[in-house]
Amino acid sequence: MRMKKATVFVLVLLMMGSVIALGCIGGSGTSSSSSSTTTSASSTATLTTKTTATSSTTTTATTTTTAEHTQTETPYYPVTIKDFADRTVTIEKEPKRVVTLAPSLTEYLYYLGLFDRVVGVTKFDDFPAGIANVTRIGGYGKYANLELIANLSPDLIIADSYSLSILDQLEKIAPVIIVDPHSINDIPKALDLLGRIFNVEDKAKEVSSQFKELSSAVSGFEEVKAFYVVWGDPLTTAGGDTFISDIINLAGGRNIFNDTSGWPTVSIEQVLARDPEVIILTPHCGIDLEDAYEKFAGTSAANSGRIYMVENENDLIHPSPRVVRGLEILAKLLHPKAFREKYPMTITDFMNRTVTIPKEPQRIVSLAPSITETLFYIGAGDKLVGVTKWADWPPAVKNISKIGGYGKYANLELIANLSPDLIIADSYSLSILDQLEKIAPVVIVDPKDISGIYRQIDLLGKVTNREEQAKLVIGEMKGEIAYIESKVRDLPRPKVFFILSYYQGYWTAGRDTFMDSVIALAGGRNVFNDTKGWVKVSDEQIIVRDPDVIVVLPTAGVNATELCNGPLSATTAVKEGRVYTATDSNVYQRPSPRIVVAIEEMAKFLHPDVFNVSFNSTVCAVSTG
Asked: Residue 563 CA to chain centroid, in angstroms?
């Protein structure tokens, strides 16, 4: 998101450091520790085996099918293993109180069903949800607080190579296991090791199998050229020897910069020359989707609407079973046909109409610019064969056939000539609905607020077989809006008057409009919230309500100077020089994912100090004395 660009670069640098340290790029430290026992546990132990018995010698585990050992069964512990640092370590008894020194290691235990044994984690752990209730032991690896760890009385500490410099001190507290995966192939090895340590080998095999299942789902499809954006300025990506590149390959893609190493800086010209079919962004990469479609215009990814924002980059960069989440998301983004929805599909649209879609749509006509934008956001832009003459975003729409005006002003003959298999429209097309239905199935979307926009995205994702992409868009929107809300939540709410247009009065937004939602989410109070829908109001009504802030669209037909020299000069907004002109009318007028841009700008207008911005409002200040 734009307002966070100045601060997230540091986070990205930290992220890259963590990725390297967590084993995304080759290299590991070694340490050794000896034990008097050398016999390791057999791999025949099952997930349901439990024991607390101890023995002075290591024995071979036996297969059991019940939750408890009988008196005649051989105890599982002690068990002796070799860890990733080639150290021989003996675990004398079943670990019950575990401290992990890397987020990825906590994730292993969660997927093995052992999260309830974790008593201490780093301050960087963010998964699973229950992590909020676990004691923090400081930083990652060597930056952990030894005193905090000791106070937790752990019976096992699990660390990676980033903790080797404090290994001697850790061993004074509890036995230490080094688990240090460097590639996607090391994840099953780590699972196997932990499965033996905790006597849950069957569960470890089950988790490992998920990687094979996902990769086999896309094995029959041609590789998709993918570009992963680590950071936007300078433009930075992942080389071929990184963990991220491994994930792209496993998901059925080909990293377009796999001939480089590490984290190379690349140029736009290089990206255009390699022409990615899919571009992957993350919340901390410094580029949002709005910018990306402009920055990468001309690529196959931008032309087909296949630029995606993943919700949480940790799903992709942590070398743990958690990466299955990221792998599944990436596989669905690269190969949606491999995970296609079942057709025919029957849905209920915004007009409560039951519509059956006989097959996955390949030729869609959109009768509203907001619908066109939404389809591009969810990666279905390549399915569009017709859009209105008002569609102007993203730049790729200039190459799509125009079918005339918006909604009821569309040219039916032009639509029919395109042989669409689906038409998507809003309520402005209801008067021609019968004629449209003679051409193709018609889905009506008609969002009135932010929740409605989420519903629109979800519905269009479903009918176009882009559900995963739709979920990501909704998640990104919610994340950005939550950030804005957190900044303005406790601040006074200024009274806001929004001017959509001027013709024999001012047209503005009442309640039950997405614009009313924009004002509220941005930390303001719509002065005409007691009206409904889009309404025309007079000078007198505005003056009585005395707005603190006035926001004018650049296409409104009235400008700030005219307001300052007219009847509204009596309002607080004009007197204090708080009349602002929006940057882009379309992001305010169209109920699409781009509405987040309007919310962000509105928040800056209403609370400039919080977002460290200033606006030139001297026109109003001077003209009102």
From this structure: 41
